[in-house]
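Researcher: Predict the fold of tRNA threonylcarbamoyladenosine biosynthesis protein TsaE.
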Amino acid sequence: MSVPGPAPRREEMLVDAEATERLGERLGVEMPPGAILGLSGPLGAGKTTLARGALRALGVREAVVSPTFLGLRRYSTADSGIVYHIDLYRSEDATWLWGEGVDDDLDDGARAVVEWIDRDRRLAADAWAIVELDVVELDDGQTGRRARIRRHR
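Model: Structure tokens for tRNA threonylcarbamoyladenosine biosynthesis protein TsaE follow.
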């Protein structure tokens, strides 16, 4: 019997907001139906920027704004799909999502991008991938982002 190894990880340095958004686009293109892409990191690390790229790649055409105050934004895509942008910053966990029907939609193939996913261990354990973002100083003295990408599925 073989024991699975640790989840595959990779690290990328992101020099600006455009690079952060492009990483989100690449991950969004790869997300299978029913997948959750989790984002973690401190305030200002680029979670919403990365989410914007992923949501665009998933077919969201309207303006993408942070759901911090609402907690949840539900988008319909051109191909009749559903994509959620969720922010758990103001939540202790994600249990309130299930009353909103998110779990049923995920079971039916919707996708979700969740900022502050580390606030709910159960949701993080179900994630297709998690991106941990950090603000770092680059070699040229500029500020950039380090993205640690861990695939779960």
